[in-house]
Amino acid sequence: MNWIAIGQCCAFLVCASASASNKPTISQSASRPYLDLAAWARTNSLRMVWETNGRDLMLTNRSLRLAFALNSRLAEVNGVKAWLSYPVIPRGTNAAISLLDVQTLIRPILTPVRYQAPRQVRVVALDPGHGGKDKGYETPNYQEKTHTLLLARRIRSLLEAADLKVVLTRSSDTYVDLDDRVALAKRQRADLFVSLHYNSSGNGRAEAKGVETYCVTPAGATY
Ligand SMILES: [Zn+2]
User: How far is the CA of 178 from the centre of ligand 1 (A)?
Assistant: First the structure.
């Protein structure tokens, strides 16, 4: 085993010789397994190109475009921003990505068939955000709580038409604790819990648009 010091504070425990094999070697940084990104790209037939700034890098094939930046958790998958659990880090003249991010974010995108839902979805819990005293985002003519409930009712009718059972965490303008919403979904044995919100930013200015999706972080991840 070799210890290689990177930068001023990171250290890698190299478990096997990386250069002798095309197979990406797992190493440790801050007690966490990392993969050599260039070796991983080769084994997955991805072309890896560094930007001239020496910080940003791109992995591409015919259908996939992955963008990373050194010391950053922010990545892009085919133009869609995605947050990694851990930053991509420098490794000598190369870069390394956490094994957890490869397993839980990148690989499911590369090989989606293997990650199909293990069970059929029958019950969906729809959670209209806010309600009652909690108005959510509001302007003089708009309250988020009103529109999340309208959206939930609309989605419910679409899902019921598709033969799914739907439960709402609230069906009127009432305040429901977050814990109670989750408990209700568990009692109803919901396969999916979908919380509906209309997010805002920048004091009402249209600085952001599109859809923002939050996922439960993988077990053991810091973020
Ligand atoms: Zn909200």
Answer: 12
> How much distance in Å is there from the Cα of 137 to the middle of ligand 1?
6
Q: Read off the pLDDT of residues 126-172 as tens digits, 9 standing for 90 and up.
A: 999 999 999 999 988 999 999 999 999 999 999 999 999 999 999 99
Residue 80 has pLDDT above 80, yes or no: yes
Q: What is the whole-number distance in angstroms between the Cα of residue 32 and the centre of ligand 1?
A: 34
Which CATH number is 158's domain given? Answer: 3.40.630.40
**152, 84 contact by CB (below 8 A):** no
On whether both 143 and 98 belong to a single domain, the answer is no
- Whether residues 74 and 135 share a domain: the answer is no
Compute CA distances 178 → 78, 98, 170, 186, 200, whole Å.
Answer: 34, 32, 11, 13, 20
Q: How many domains does the chain have?
A: 2
| Domain encompassing residue 74 | 2-115
